[in-house]
Amino acid sequence: MLQNEDPNTVIAFTDGSCRGNPGPCGAGSCVFLPSVDKVELKQPVSKLTSILVGELVAVKIILQFILEELKKRPIKKVKDPVRQPNNNRCAQTRLVMQDT
After folding, report:
1. What is the value of pTM for the model shown?
2. Which parts of the sequence belong to the RNase H type-1 domain (predicted)?
């Protein structure tokens, strides 16, 4: 999947987990940036919450990370995200950053 993408595409995978529902909860994300190895992010969420909160926090930490990366490098254009269904019944969102 990653080999077929534009080299300027940011690809992120996110997941929230919960031991019991509600229960102790955490969030994790993996992001592939242009010209950078993958970056893994994780964050404990709460001692007692639902898995949905973990899923949302996983998206939040990846968006915060991408915003910080945008401050480090000049970006000429950000294409509109495109949601695409895939074989795993989840949606993929593509964000393409073009360096100046």
Report:
1. 0.70
2. 6-100
Residue 48: the pLDDT is 92
Contact 25, 51 (CB under 8 A): yes
Full DSSP string of 3-50: GGS-TTEEEEEEEEEESSSSEEEEEEEEEE-TTS--EEEEEEEEEEE-
Tell me the residue type at 23. G
How far apart (Å, rounded) are the C-alpha atoms in residues 54 and 37?
25
Q: What is the DSSP string of 55-92?
A: HHHHHHHHHHHHHHHHHHS-EEEEPPPEEEE-TTSSEE
Q: What gap in Å lies between CA 100 and CA 23, rounded to an integer?
A: 46
Sequence-distant (6+) residues with CB within 8 A of 89 are none
Tokens 């080299």 -> residue: 7
